[in-house]
Every structure is written in structure tokens, then in C-alpha cells.
Amino acid sequence: MYIKPKTLDEAVLALATEPAQVLSGGTDFYPALGDRPVRGSVVDVSGLGELRGVATEADRIRIGGLTTWSEIIRTPLPRCLDALKATAREVGSVQIQNRGTVAGNLCNASPAADGVPPLLALDADVELVSKAGSRRMPLAEFIVGNRKTQRRADELLTAVLVPRVVESAASAFVKLGARRYLVISISMVAAAVLVDDTGRVADARVAVGSCSAAARRLRELERELVGAAVREGLGRRVRPEHLQPLSPIDDVRATAEYRMDASLTLVQRALNACIGVF
Predict the structure, then answer these.
(1) Nearest to 246 by CA among 238, 194, 184, 147
(2) Is 148 helix (H, G, I), strand (E, B) or coil?
(3) pLDDT single digits (tens) 60-115
(4) Could you tell me if residue 39 is inside a domain?
(5) Domain boundary among 146, 165, 184
């Protein structure tokens, strides 16, 4: 059965009625089928305009779940989301950016999901809505493993909520792949750095993707960077032991050893980019 609801209420009612796959942009949905037909019910939420767009609220920035990557690129956003804009430009081709959605990227929960590190670095929450009501949880808790999330079958991810705690922080996103575009990353890093009036780090956030079952924050590095003088550069402060939270694997794109070594360099580059050192 194919259902295309016109409102969020209709969508969650359909999901509560019987198990169904959720279709938004379709950029992961259809490739995953290969040459197999669609089986089971599908709820196509692509027409829910109420889940699109970005809004600035009192204490957070609300990104609608059906906001596309092209919309992220076009929308004026605070400096802390420059990394997310850079990510949007790296998500597949322009055609993919026009169709792919933020919620789809997060719910697909690939270890190489480009959208996760820049949002994870900013302590983003996700909003989940069902017929029974809504709930929020940290993105760090929502993705629990490779292609695994906390979303229940009757829920939709309706929004991503970014706290405005470090909205003036500079942010950067760097990605390594086998080629420049249309690539699944070997490693990727998002960083955000807030500098105080004395030229020292007031807050630092670093998240690494493609090197664990889900993206990981480098908490120890973040703590050590606070108080550092930015004029001396930040990249040089990164040491191999800061990458201990990562657990890269060997696969067709790279070895675990190469991923770890590359990630060290990418973290250094991302931090330096935040403070204008290249």
C-alpha cells in the first residue's frame, strides 16, 4: 500500500495503523532496493511542507526534518552552522542535494552519514512525533549503531534542534574520500571553536564520522583545547591518544590504520580552519 499524507497528523495516523516504510527524499530508499520491487506499505511524507525550513527560536535553531540539503545551502545560518553548510555541499550530487533530507540522512544512520558530525558537534537534539505525542532526545543517543536508531516504527523525525549556546563559534567540515565528489567518506571531521576576547578558546567541539559505527565526539581533546591561545594554532595540540574514542574498520575504501592516521590530520585541519590557519 502506498500512502501520501497531506498533514503530519495524517502521517502519524498512517504509521500507527500498520507497519510501513517512510519515504522522504528517496535518495537512500530507492538505491537500497536495487532491482527488487517495493514490499510492504510505504508512507510518503515528501509532501509535508510543515516539516520544511529553518526557524530561529529563543534558545535554539529548528531545522525541519524534510529540509533538503539545497535549502540548507541557501538559508542564512549562524557561524556555528557553517560546517553543516559545507556538509550540504558534499552530500552526493546537486540532484541528491535537491531531494535528500536532513531527517533521511540521520534516520538512515550510516556510519558515513555526512550530516551527523556537524550536528553532533553542536549537541543537537532530534524531535520524534507519533500519534501518542512527541519526544526529544540528543542526537548522540538517537543513533545507536550502524543503520540503527531509537526511532520507533510509529514515529517520524520531524525536526533537528540546535541549541544557540555557541552560535557565534566558527565551524568547519573536512572530508576525505577516494575522489572529490560523489564519494562515501574514508573519514570526516566537523569542528566548532568559540574564541573569547583574549584570543583564547572558550569552547571547542570536535566530531569524527566514518571511523566508528556512529560518529563520535573527541571529548578529551575538547577539554584540553579550552583556554588554549589560538595564535599558536590548535592543530598542533592534537595527539593520537585524543582519537581513542574511534573504532575504525578495514573495508574496501581504507584500512583501519589509514583511517586513524587520516583522521588525526583531518582533525588538525578542521581546528585550524576554524581559526583561519591554513
Answers:
(1) 238
(2) strand
(3) 999 999 999 999 999 999 999 999 999 999 998 899 999 999 999 999 999 999 99
(4) no
(5) 165
